Amino acid sequence: MLNKEVTVLVPAYNEEDKIGDTISSLQQLEDVNEIIVINDGSTDKTVNIVKEFKDIKLIDLKINQGKGEALNQGLSEIKGQIISLIDADLGKTALELRKLLKPVLQQEVDMTIAKFPAPKKKGGFGLVTTLARVGLKIFTGLQFDSPLSGQRVLTKNLISYLNGFESGFGVEVGMTIKTIKGGFKVKEVPVNMSHQETGRDWMGFKHRGRQFKDVLTVFLSQIQGGK
């Protein structure tokens, strides 16, 4: 296994309920050398909780800028050769990161993607996931079970090639397309991670509507010869 430092980027927006358990779990992983939390304009106690932990680098954005831009802010501070992207609401299941790290540390692939178990709660109608899955099949020729999974591990070489992330919720499909087209190897890895699931209420549909728009924007940019 390669002796390379691992940096974990954790974008967080109003995650006071889970951020503490997420950080505690990440700190238990021997392979993790650096944890950077990017507070994306939270209005709750997220920042205060992060500050209670030692050896955590905090980037405190005063205005919410979206997941993609939050991650881009974190890239300017990384020291590791292996970069992990972890959502702040994983809680204790963040320990499952070890499964994503292994194939990259062993140089089997350039990026791993967490394949989540089936959701326990009925969310939307699968429109965003279907859009992402079909779009990735069209633009990469590959089938992905978890096309929107934000839990990933990448080499710094791949990070440099990507040259930043897409804005908003298009970050995952954007990086997947660029990674495959660049000739890098990708692998989905089954994990027992879980996070906050959106339901069939107004906030849930609003969230998925933003996801749908951002994912569609990425695919349209591909058609128009964009990134």
TrEMBL record:
Q: Which cofactor does it need?
A: Mg(2+)
Q: Gene3D superfamilies from the xrefs?
A: Spore Coat Polysaccharide Biosynthesis Protein SpsA, Chain A (3.90.550.10)
Task: Show the catalytic activity.
Answer: (2R)-3-phosphoglycerate + UDP-alpha-D-glucose = (2R)-2-O-(alpha-D-glucopyranosyl)-3-phospho-glycerate + UDP + H(+); an NDP-alpha-D-glucose + (2R)-3-phosphoglycerate = (2R)-2-O-(alpha-D-glucopyranosyl)-3-phospho-glycerate + a ribonucleoside 5'-diphosphate + H(+)
Similarity comment: Belongs to the glycosyltransferase 2 family.
Keyword Magnesium tagged: yes
Enzyme Commission (EC) number:
2.4.1.266
Please indicate if the UniProt record lists Transferase as a keyword.
yes
Q: Where is the Glycosyltransferase 2-like domain?
A: 7-126
Name assigned to this protein: Glucosyl-3-phosphoglycerate synthase
| Alphabetized UniProt keyword annotations | Glycosyltransferase, Magnesium, Transferase
CDD domains attached to this UniProt entry: DPM_DPG-synthase_like (cd04179)
- Top-tier EC class: transferase
Pfam families associated with the record: Glycos_transf_2
